[in-house]
Design brief:
Layout: H1 15-24, H2 33-56, E1 62-70, E2 76-85, E3 91-100, H3 106-120, E4 125-130, H4 134-149, E5 161-163, H5 165-176, H6 182-195, H7 198-210, H8 227-239, H9 241-250, H10 252-257, E6 261-262, E7 265-266, H11 273-296, H12 307-322, H13 327-345, H14 353-359, H15 365-376, H16 379-400, H17 426-438, H18 445-451, H19 464-471, H20 476-485, H21 493-505, H22 515-531, H23 533-549
Helix pairs in contact: 2-22, 3-4, 5-11, 5-13, 6-8, 6-11, 7-9, 8-11, 11-12, 12-13, 12-15, 15-16, 19-20, 21-22
Length: about 550
């Protein structure tokens, strides 16, 4: 309870908790806060040993993400998260360390990560995902040498460094929104005015009801450095457009607010019909980037196989809009296209593993990548690049064929999560025989996989990892590659999300916690929540739904 719910150790001494225990079980001996602190240490050590065994068994190879954060007390921390697909083909992520860092130099970051890997007994590192800071380039180059020395890298760590795609996408869109359109400024000013007072929020809510708008949320005020917050602000405000227009009639001070100066300049607004129409266009345009960011930042599903699918859609959107005469979006698109070309325009600037990941998605293989590239590049460039991707896949196949770990065979009782299949029937026996007969022994697994028919991309609820689990016997070596490549995270969000926990644990009332205790609390909470993820999510989802219904939360 103390760890998962982020409660202070002194919670057990509180009058409310003691009264609660007296009612539930008067004979229960309430432990002291020192006892709770010791129990947290024991729990941390126990859970750490369990995780260490899992990370080192069966020669498990792992991927890492890391990021830095500064607490309210101006203390810098580094979070290191491990990602891997276990022998049962389940994608997992666990925080390994949440520790203080003296500075953000590459050598310091590398030393902390190396010490952490030694502590956990981890040698087999596949990739490290970091954002685009120069210090991170230095850190990865040092770590690459260390892992090569441990003989734990793949292909001498040539493809170890994965740059955070969500961070790059944020740079691209932020460049396009550097000079915000006056329509966005007008809507921001309107939202800010409403949020300045609880009475105004309630009055707008009344307008929402009167206009019969199906909206139960609250207005969002954006953060200038986060374009996705601007997108959410506009998206939510557009739902309440009629309510804003009605509010203008019911609050005499509303129009007066826009006559005041801000920073020596007159405010934009109130939003006009044209401003709302422009905002609608902006939201429609930014939606593709917002959805791509969500997919890049996913932590509970495979992301490496979706990189090029989303990249192709973004490239296509920018390319088509650049050819139009849309004056509203043209400058924005032009700035974004320049930044896009800087990071992703040159095919050689992207880690080839992310293209291999797309090939290892049985819905797309080489066909879709070849088609997309053909829409943006000349035939010779496409041909040369596809050859590079194929060569890397075959090189990986040769590497993994040299005595890599074995995938556990599928249990006889294993069934699809969506359908219940009968076992040991004549039909299943026939299908197994048919599958064996159709194997062409003259082809290696790569050739056979690429030649086999692709899964329909429109297959509902398709699960890539489940498909590989089903076909790991058919492709024993290729499935080893897929298990590592598909575990590669393409953003550092998993590490960044730990900073929210760190911020709550290190609130102004608990700023005296020493770094070792903070590390134990953050890591142990992550491990316990991950183990009971489904139960925790279901409980809070049901609770939130009920609280919304009775009006206690928005």
């Amino acid at each position: 309870m103390v760890v998962i719910d982020e409660l202070p150790f002194r919670f057990v001494g509180g009058l409310g908790f003691r009264s609660f225990c007296a009612v539930i079980q008067p004979k229960f001996v309430i432990p002291s806060r020192m006892t709770i602190a010791r129990d947290v240490v024991h729990l941390y050590n126990s859970e750490m040993e369990k995780l260490k065994k899992e990370l080192t068994k069966d020669d498990q190879r792992v991927c890492l993400t890391t990021d830095c954060w500064t607490s309210n007390q101006q203390i810098p921390y580094l979070c290191l998260t491990v990602h891997y697909i276990d022998s049962d083909w389940c994608l997992k992520k666990r925080i390994l360390n949440f520790v203080q860092i003296s500075n953000h130099k590459g050598e310091t970051i590398a030393k902390l990560i190396e010490d952490c890997l030694h502590k956990w007994g981890i040698e087999r590192v596949f990739t490290i995902t970091m954002d685009n800071a120069t210090a991170n380039d230095v850190a990865v180059s040092i770590l690459k040498r260390r892992v090569n020395g441990w003989e734990g890298s793949v292909l001498n760590g040539e493809y170890m460094h994965v740059r955070c795609c969500a961070h790059i996408l944020n740079l691209i869109v932020s460049d396009g929104l550097k000079e915000l359109h006056h329509s966005i400024s007008a809507i921001r000013a309107a939202v800010r005015y409403i949020r300045l007072s609880t009475a105004r929020v309630e009055k707008l809510s009344a307008c929402v009801v009167k206009e019969k708008i199906d909206f139960k949320g609250k207005l969002v005020l954006d953060v200038p450095t986060r374009w996705n917050s601007t997108y959410k602000m506009l998206e939510v405000a557009l739902k309440c457009q009629k309510a804003f227009e009605r509010y203008e009639e019911e609050d005499s001070k509303y129009l007066q607010y826009f006559l005041e100066e801000e920073g020596g300049k007159k405010k934009f607004g109130p939003p006009s019909k044209i401003d709302w129409a422009n905002a609608s266009r902006f939201v429609e345009f930014l939606r593709s980037f917002y959805q791509a960011t969500l997919k890049f930042s996913a932590t509970k599903s495979v992301t490496s196989n979706c990189f090029y699918l989303e990249l192709g859609e973004i490239f296509n959107l920018l390319k088509n809009l650049a050819l139009t005469n849309d004056s509203l979006l043209l400058d924005m698109v032009s700035n974004m296209k320049k930044k896009f070309d800087k990071y992703w325009g040159n095919l050689d600037n992207t880690n080839l593993l992310l293209y291999v990941a797309a090939v290892l998605d049985p819905r797309y293989k080489l066909g879709y990548i070849t088609y997309c590239l053909g829409c943006f590049y000349d035939a010779q460039t496409v041909s040369n690049f596809i050859l590079k991707v194929q060569t890397l896949l075959r090189t990986l196949y040769a590497f993994y064929s040299k005595g890599e770990r074995e995938i556990s065979p599928i249990p006889k009782s294993f069934t699809s999560p969506n359908t219940l299949q009968r076992q040991d029937t004549l039909l299943s026996a026939f299908m197994k025989q048919k599958e064996q007969i159709t194997f062409d022994e003259s082809l290696n697994e790569v050739d056979r996989y690429l030649a086999d028919e692709s899964v329909n991309p429109l297959t509902p609820s398709f699960e890539t990892l489940f498909w590989w689990k089903q076909n790991s016997i058919k492709y024993p070596v290729l499935s080893l590659i897929a298990r590592d490549v598909l575990a590669v995270p393409i953003s550092t969000v998993a590490s960044e999300s730990a900073f929210s926990t760190g911020g709550r644990i290190l609130d102004p009332y608990r700023s005296s916690l020493n770094p070792k205790t903070v590390n134990m609390l953050v890591c142990t909470q992550n491990w316990l929540k991950s183990t009971n993820e489904g139960l925790v999510e279901q409980f809070f989802s049901d609770e939130d739904d009920e609280l919304v219904q009775i009006g206690l939360i928005l």
